[in-house]
Specification:
This protein is α+β, with helices and mostly antiparallel strands and 350 residues long. It folds into two domains: 139 residues, Aminopeptidase (3-Layer(aba) Sandwich), CATH 3.40.630; 147 residues, Gcn5-related N-acetyltransferase (GNAT) (Aminopeptidase, 3-Layer(aba) Sandwich). The chain is built from twelve helices and 16 strands. The strands form two sheets. Strands 1, 2, 3, 4, 5, 6, 7, 8 and 16 form a nine-stranded mixed beta sheet that branches. Strands 10-11-12-13-14-9-15 form a seven-stranded mixed beta sheet, sandwiched between helices. A hairpin with a 2-residue loop joins strand 11 and strand 12. Helix 6 crosses helix 9. The longest helix has 18 residues. It comes from Ktedonosporobacter rubrisoli.
Length: 350
């Protein structure tokens, strides 16, 4: 059965297991899917399966991305690191996969990209190509932040104490002006890594849509009245997800990122969240891999699946010559030009 996100039959209800799984996945929030469609102009299609009682037993949202850079693609989902295929059992999972493959053929896309992570149905499908470029890092939380503190590696604990001793202050963003301060850091951080940045309008939209209902939390690190770093977290169900982070490299010796992340973890424990998802990490990025490992997080494979061929930025290894060429060229652009181009090009990279 194929339905668009906006036209679920009113007579249909969620199967309990699917509803519970979806609640913990920020990227399956209808407001996030609507933002992708409204801001970037993607066509959004949600594949579903249902049982004889009209209970929804499976769900897989897809976006149609038409890019002069990577061709016409179906992606689940752009700018979303982990989008599990939700199904009550393997029969429904196979049904969803067959729907996705059939839709890809009808749309004549260059590539279908499923960012589903570990899934035996996808792994066993001979038509899919599996790319194992990423891992996710999952940190178990508890009611008492000290239970998490005891699992932190000593260097991490020392960096947090260092930031506190040097009077780095952490506060929650309160206004659109705070979002603009974060975005200035975001553009420079992306530039340092040779990558385009989303426009300021995107972060303002995120703030307007999600902050008021508690699904977005932005923390800013300040030192002597200067904003030196920031992080954005999404919340859904019992899970907090690290989404974006940026910092002024002139102040990295103050360890603001360590204190930001620890502040988010402490808040999450106090608010009753069970899991902190530290986000997707490229296996080739050994420095970031080690940073997250030291927080006591568990590493989990995050394969992506493609049909009939691999295409798109997420399928490009950071160690490849294509990736190095892209990032090397971007680093050489003037900051003003990179800022303007990034806002224009970003939708094609989803």
């Amino acid at each position: 059965m194929l339905q668009s996100l906006d036209t679920y039959p009113s007579s249909m209800h969620w199967h309990h297991s699917i509803e519970q799984q979806a609640k913990n996945i920020f990227y399956y929030d209808e407001a996030w899917l609507d933002l992708l469609k409204r801001f970037y102009g993607y066509s959004t299609i949600t594949l579903i399966t249902a049982d004889k009682h009209d209970y929804i037993t499976g769900m897989l949202p897809l976006c149609l991305v038409q890019s002069p850079l990577t061709g016409k693609r179906l992606v689940s989902l752009p700018f979303s690191d982990h989008c599990p295929l939700l199904a009550a059992d393997e029969v429904y999972a196979h049904d969803l996969l067959e729907q996705a493959l059939a839709l890809s053929r009808r749309q004549k896309v260059r590539s279908l990209e499923l960012r589903c992570g570990l899934n035996p149905v996808l792994t066993q499908c001979s038509e899919l190509l599996e790319k194992d470029l990423y891992v996710s890092w999952l940190l178990q939380l508890g009611a008492d932040p000290q239970s998490v503190w005891s699992r932190l590696h000593k260097p991490v604990q020392r960096q947090i104490k260092k930031a506190q001793k040097l009077d780095v202050q952490i506060r929650s963003a309160q206004s659109r002006e705070d979002i603009a301060r974060y975005h200035q850091l975001h553009v420079r951080t992306r530039m340092k890594h040779g990558m385009p940045a989303q426009p300021l309008r995107f972060f303002l939209e995120l703030w307007e849509v999600f902050a008021h209902k508690g699904a977005l939390r932005m923390l800013l690190a300040e030192h002597k009245n200067t904003t030196i770093a920031g992080m954005i977290f999404f919340t859904a169900g019992t899970t907090i997800r690290y989404a974006y982070g940026a910092s002024d490299e002139r102040y990295l010796n103050l360890a603001p990122n360590n204190l930001l992340l620890w502040s988010a973890i402490s808040w999450g424990c106090e608010q009753g969240y069970c899991l902190m998802d530290l986000g997707r990490t490229a296996r080739a990025n050994t420095g970031l891999m080690e940073f997250k490992r030291r927080w006591g997080a568990d590493e989990e494979a995050l394969p992506y699946y493609y049909y009939p061929q691999c295409a798109g930025l997420a399928a490009t290894a950071e160690s490849s010559w294509k990736y190095r060429l892209l990032t090397g060229c971007w680093k050489r652009l003037p900051l003003s030009l990179a800022t303007a181009l990034g806002g224009h090009l970003y939708k094609y990279l989803g």
